[in-house]
Design goal:
There is one protein chain. This protein is of the alpha+beta class and about 180 residues long. It has one domain. Helices cover about 25% and strands about 40% of the residues. It comes from Lentilactobacillus diolivorans. Keywords: Membrane, Transmembrane, Transmembrane helix.
């Protein structure tokens, strides 16, 4: 007859299992916290900026997310309830996004026809800058590099935008051709 010896587990074996489970729970909790911090809703992020800068709120229906490049980086555009435009660049990271910069512009007729740029730097390399501006009512959409720029209409505001290798050197044509 085969008599198998059944060894009683020691207290050290229980501690190893408990510590392993505790370590896994800590790793899961840290991962969840990282994702919550880095993958926030664009509307919430822009609203935080608006409240910090001007004690305003973003109109939740105005938030638009644009793809900035092939890496998944984003440009977020939103209008506040007091005629301000906030544009933000978010770099794609593992599990979410990192805010890389933003620009705030008052929407007035004095700002019309003036191109603005938001420089986008990813991994210490410059990627296409976000070029944008405000148009007056009934004004034709400007051109950049011979092509019409894209347009966002919101509550009577007309925002043209496009991407350029350098916003400083970009020439935007407001003519009809």
């Amino acid at each position: 007859m085969d008599k198998s010896v059944h060894k009683k587990p020691s207290i050290l074996d229980h501690w190893k299992a408990g510590l392993t489970i505790l370590a896994l729970l800590i790793i899961c909790g840290a991962s969840l916290l990282y994702l919550l911090i880095h993958n926030r809703d664009p509307q919430v992020i822009l609203n935080d900026v608006a409240q910090q800068r001007q004690s305003q709120q973003i109109d939740k229906n105005s938030v638009t997310t644009l793809s900035a490049d092939d890496n998944g980086d984003q440009i977020i555009v939103g209008f506040t309830n007091q005629n301000r435009l906030i544009i933000q660049f978010r770099e794609r990271t593992v599990g979410g996004y990192r805010i890389k910069g933003y620009r705030e512009t008052a929407l007035t007729s004095l700002k019309a026809n003036r191109p603005y740029g938001l420089t986008n730097i990813v991994k210490n390399k410059r990627v296409n800058d976000f070029l944008y501006g405000i148009l007056q009512p009934n004004q034709p959409i400007p051109r950049f590099g011979g092509k019409k720029m894209s347009l966002i209409n919101y509550h009577g505001h007309r925002l043209y935008y496009g991407f350029a290798p350098s916003a400083k050197n970009a020439v935007v044509s407001f003519g009809t051709k």
